Amino acid sequence: xxxxxxxxxxxxxxxxxLFAWGSATHAYIAKQLCEEGSEPLLIYGSVxxxxxxxxxxxxxxxxxAKITHYKLEKIKKESNKRKLxxxxxxxxxxxxxxxxxxxxxxxxxxxxKKGYVAEKSNIIGxxxxxxxxxxxxxxxxxxxxxxxxxxxxxxAHPLIEIAVDLEIKxxxxxxxxxxxxxxxxxxxxxxxxxxxxxxxxxxxxKYKIPKxxxxxxxxxxxxNFREAIIKYGVILNYDYDLTIxxxxxxxxDLINYFLESSxxxxxxxxxxxxxxxxxxxxxxxxxxxxxxxxxxxKYLNKRREIKQLCKKIQKQR
Length: 317
Ligand SMILES: [Zn+2]
Prior knowledge:
- There is one protein chain.
- The protein is an all-alpha fold.
- 73% of the residues lie in helices and 0% in strands.
- The protein is globular, with a radius of gyration of 20 Å.
- It binds zinc ion.
- Residues 18-20, 49-50, 69, 94, 101 line the site of zinc ion.
- The site of zinc ion has 8 residues, from loops.
């Protein structure tokens, strides 16, 4: 039994629920705020609160993901000090306290109960579980349900995000991939300093580690994230079918890597299964994602914090 428990624990290091909306969706939402357009600082600001999401093995993971989604005052102060209002606008649009991630994760605007992404992940989760259970049973896995259950609850959420990102790039905004790429390539060299100024002090105190060490942790993670955004933008720029193939391959590699390093060594999934899962997510979201996103935009444009920043940006011109 302990082997199974260990395996489940080791599987739970897959990308976490805190992503909420995918990067392309965040960028798209930010582009519709105060008619800002595709200003790179705005776009990068809208995705950067997720900069630590890839560092799921870090002991600081939970804390950093939490503060980047909830502690907004210091970021606002630091970016306003540098007069980077567009960056501030993007960043503030993302948060889970009252921003876009709230509608994804906790409180959807058009469907009831939970957040949009959370609700949709539950629905496709059971379909994915059934497929995975069949797959692992065929590979002779003992208790395939347990593995299928752990894995499906981890991947359903990112699959919904990816599906909405794909829908955004296909039907709403074909330049969103290029916007992500150029925002990450052109991100100012002093942007990581804003993250450091806003968060390093508190983290250093909380974990009793030197501030220089926290600085390195933040800067390295931001650098990895920046590269991942460029890579993701490049993938989104391909045509629809190729984008799905590439994303399916990425996801498959990630899962097989974790299976290989767990006690389920030897069992695996194929890109074909992953493609099927992506299509489950697309089918589940295609009829109502647009409404949820446009309601989220309307809601954000009415927020006092957003309106204030829009005014500051207009004044700056
Ligand atoms: Zn997020």
